[in-house]
Every structure is written in C-alpha cells, then in structure tokens.
C-alpha cells in the first residue's frame, strides 16, 4: 500500500457499529475481491472489496472476515482468515500480512490461516442460528461477473440450508453513509491530492495539447502523493466532448477557444474524491461561456445550502431543478412556454441538465446510502450541476465534495480548489 497506515481504532469502531445491528446468535462473513484475469497470465490490479476494508482495514486478496458477537468463546467472535505467507511468496509477490501485522492493522486478535476457514466455519455454524450474507444492493450496481462474495453465498446456502438468512447490505448502507472523523480526514486527503493535480494542469493546459496528456499530468501528481491513482475513470473532455456525460476516450486535441471539462478525482487509502471543473483552453472565457459558467456555479452554490440534516434526496433534486430552470430562462435556453408545457416526469430543464445533482461519496465514488432516508450530519455528498449545449459545442459542469454539518451549511472539502471564473482565468494566464 502507498498510503500511511490507518489507526486500527477506526475499524474497531466500524465493527462495533455493524455487530450492534445484528440479530442475536448470528454470524456475518465478508470476502475480499478476486484478482481478475485479463488473458494469458495478466491480471488487473487488485482492488479490495470496500466492505471488508471498512470493517477490518485489510487491503489484501484472499482474505475473509467473520463476525460472531454472541459466540460462546471469545476467539470466535472476530476472526480474520488470511492466506498463509512464506518466504517464497515474499520473494515473488512481496510481503503479505502476518498474524501480528494483521492485528496491528485491524485490531482483531484471532487470525487464522485461510486453509482452516471451512473447518472453523463448521464449528461456528453449530452455535449460530442466522447467517448475514453480503450482497451488492447499491442502486447503481450492474453486476455481470460472479464475485468471490457471490461464490461464497452460493456455496454456503448449499452446505447450510437449515440456517436463517439475513442481509448485511442494509446495515452497511446506513453505517457506511455516516462517516467517522478519521474517514473525513482520509477523504480530505484525497481531495487535497486532487487539488494538487488540478493546480498542476492549470499550468499545463494550452491550445493543441491532447486530452490524454492532461490525464497523464493528473496521474503523475496523484501517484507522487501516495495515491494509487484515479478514484474512477477520468473524464478529460474538450469542446463538444463535454456533452457526452461519460466521455472517457480522452484522445482528442484541445483547440483554442474550447472549454475543457475535467471530471477527475484522486483516491487515497481506498477513499474517493470527485471533482469537476471546466476551464477555457485559451485562458479566458468568452462572454457566453462565462454567463453559462456563472449560472452553473450559482446553482451549485444554492444547491449546497440545501444539504442539511433532514433533507430528503428526492425533494432536494426537485428544488435544484427549480434553480436550474430559472438560470436556463435567464440564459435564453428555455422560455416560459417550455416550462408551462413541460412533462412533469421529464421537466424542461432536463434538456440541458439531464443527470442528478448529488450522490453519497466515500469508500466508493458513488457510495452507500439509502436515498429514501433523511440526510444526516457527517454524510459526504457531491454537488455537481451542469449545463450541456451541443448546438454551441460546449458543456459546463462544476462539482465539489461536501460534509453535512449538524448546524448550518455543509463543509466544503474542496474549498481550496479554484472555481470562480476570474480565479481560473488568473491562474491560467499567470
């Protein structure tokens, strides 16, 4: 791992929150992700399953966490199963967690080699009545590959059909969405690395530079600051490319007079940041570009004020739609007839702003959170309105990451990243 070790107290607290919501005499199991093959002997870089990381801090493949708070014996209440390391593995793959290091990382005393997992689970299941299985129920999830977790669930159901089944995901959706102070510090670190990347490219962007060169500048800055790289596939979209919401080719030239939309965020210690800025390639916005830019910025600023405890996500987006409608009328992109005759299921503003304004953020860029429950303090949300005008060959989106506070407006984790049009121009021309 490139990041500094996280204090194990965070993971101890996270486990306490999870087990406090388990039913009596129940077990929960969490698996690490697979290492996915490409072809021949090539594999994708390992990325840990966020749930086992959240509960243990273990950032290693072939790991299993078992939680059994009502176990009759203390050594069965929290168990980490790890692939046994040896000198051969250390030479070829690098050092893996020993039992001692696993305790330092996780705070879990009972560490058992993975080869004894089935034997230990068999004993545990003789005492337990219920198993919490871990399934991905995120509202944006599309799963086409059978995961290690899914294989375990299938195997467990075949071998222990008499036990009751509960789901871990509803618990995780709630507790992961409200961040501990240590988590907020890690997300802030990711945002600070993103800031460094953005300031770097402000000194790099000029007419005729390629989008992928800008991507490379971000990657350089991220890696040199202990990030593994991008929290998600970066969008470096010049000119009309910005009107493709998930444009990731990043293979076009940036032309004089174009705007450049940058949807980029660094990860740090598996925590995400998620930033969007739109800048003028030639160093200065024209009058039309600046008018649209300031309209988007105004919507972002006003929408941010609504992110307070008790706010409902669905109603929030309705109110943001009203803000955007007003701005689009002012820009001449909509007229009163458009609004009066709009389809309530697809309001007129959606022609120019077709995506949502905010989503939970944390260990996942689109993090866990139950959208039908009111917002709470210490939830982290993005705020990312945009206006997309294909006929004028530009699109503008602006995005910050904010923490909901107990009282007042949210705290902006990207407060130090330039966003005002005049400041952007000043830096580009310095």
Task: Tell me briefly what this model is.
With 430 residues, the protein is of the alpha+beta class.
Mean pLDDT across all residues, rounded?
Answer: 96
Secondary structure tally: strands: 18
Q: What share of residues are in beta strands?
A: 15-25%
| Unreliable stretches covering 5 or more consecutive residues | none
> What would you call the shape?
globular
Structure classification: alpha+beta
From the alpha carbons, calculate the radius of gyration and give it in angstroms.
24 Å
Specify the oligomeric state. Answer: single chain
Major sheet: arrangement of strands: 6-5-4-1-7-8
Helix segment tally: 13
Summarize the biggest pleated sheet.
6 strands, mixed
Q: Provide the helix percentage.
A: 25-40%
Distance between the termini: 37 Å
Describe this entry's structure for a reader.
The chain has 430 residues and is an alpha+beta fold. Helix content is 35%, strand content 17%. It contains 13 helices and 18 strands. It has helices spanning 9-19, 50-56, 87-93, 99-106, 117-127, 148-159, 169-177, 181-202, 211-223, 287-305, 313-330, 336-340, 421-428; strands at 26-31, 37-39, 42-43, 63-67, 78-82, 110-113, 130-133, 164-167, 235-238, 259-264, 267-268, 271-272, 275-280, 380-383, 386-389, 394-397, 400-403, 411-412. The strands form six sheets. Strands 6-5-4-1-7-8 form a six-stranded mixed β-sheet, with helices on both faces. A three-stranded antiparallel β-sheet has the order 9-10-13. A three-stranded antiparallel β-sheet has the order 14-17-18, with helices on one face. α1 (9-19) crosses α2. The radius of gyration is 24 Å and the shape is globular. The two termini are 37 Å apart. Its EC number is 3.4.11.9. One of its GO terms (molecular function) is aminopeptidase activity. Pfam families: AMP_N (PF05195), Peptidase_M24 (PF00557). This is Xaa-Pro aminopeptidase. Residues 6-142 form the Aminopeptidase P N-terminal domain.
């Amino acid at each position: 791992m490139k990041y500094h070790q996280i204090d194990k107290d965070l993971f101890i607290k996270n486990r306490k929150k999870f087990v406090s919501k388990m039913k009596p005499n129940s077990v929960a199991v969490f698996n690490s992700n697979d290492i996915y093959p490409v072809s021949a002997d090539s594999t994708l870089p390992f990325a840990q399953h966020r749930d086992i990381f959240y509960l243990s801090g273990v950032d290693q493949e072939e790991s299993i966490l078992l939680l059994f708070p009502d176990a009759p014996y203390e050594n069965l209440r929290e168990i980490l199963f790890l692939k046994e390391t040896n000198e051969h593995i250390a030479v070829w793959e690098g050092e893996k967690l020993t039992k001692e290091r696993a305790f330092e990382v996780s705070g879990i005393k009972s560490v058992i080699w993975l080869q004894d997992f089935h034997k230990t689970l068999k004993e545990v299941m003789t005492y337990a009545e219920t198993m919490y299985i871990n399934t991905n129920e995120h509202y944006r999830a599309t799963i086409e590959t059978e995961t290690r977790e899914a294989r375990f669930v299938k195997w467990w159901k075949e071998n222990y059909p008499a036990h009751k089944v509960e789901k871990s995901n509803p618990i995780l959706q709630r507790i992961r969405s409200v961040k501990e102070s240590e988590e907020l510090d890690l997300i802030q670190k990711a945002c600070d690395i993103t800031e460094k990347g953005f300031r770097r490219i402000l000194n790099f962007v000029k007419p005729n530079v390629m989008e992928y060169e800008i991507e490379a500048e971000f990657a350089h800055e991220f890696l040199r600051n202990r990030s593994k790289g991008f929290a998600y596939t970066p969008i470096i979209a010049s000119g009309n490319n910005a009107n493709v919401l998930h444009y990731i080719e990043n293979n076009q030239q940036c032309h004089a007079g174009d705007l450049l939309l940058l949807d980029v965020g660094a990860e740090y210690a598996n925590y995400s940041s998620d930033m969007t800025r739109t800048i003028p390639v030639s160093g200065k916005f024209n009058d039309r570009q600046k008018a649209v830019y300031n309209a988007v910025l105004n919507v972002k600023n006003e929408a941010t004020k609504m992110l307070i405890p008790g706010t409902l996500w669905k109603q929030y987006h309705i109110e943001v739609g009203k803000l955007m409608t007003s701005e689009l009328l002012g820009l001449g992109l909509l007229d009163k007839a458009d609004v009066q005759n709009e389809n309530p299921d697809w309001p007129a503003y959606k022609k120019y702003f077709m995506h949502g304004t905010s989503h939970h953020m944390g260990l996942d860029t689109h993090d866990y959170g139950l959208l039908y429950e009111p917002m709470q303090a210490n939830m982290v949300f993005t705020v990312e309105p945009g206006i997309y005008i294909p006929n004028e060959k530009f699109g503008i989106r602006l995005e910050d990451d904010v923490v909901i506070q107990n009282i007042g407006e949210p705290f902006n984790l990207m407060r130090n990243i330039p966003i005002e049009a005049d400041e952007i121009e000043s830096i580009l021309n310095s």
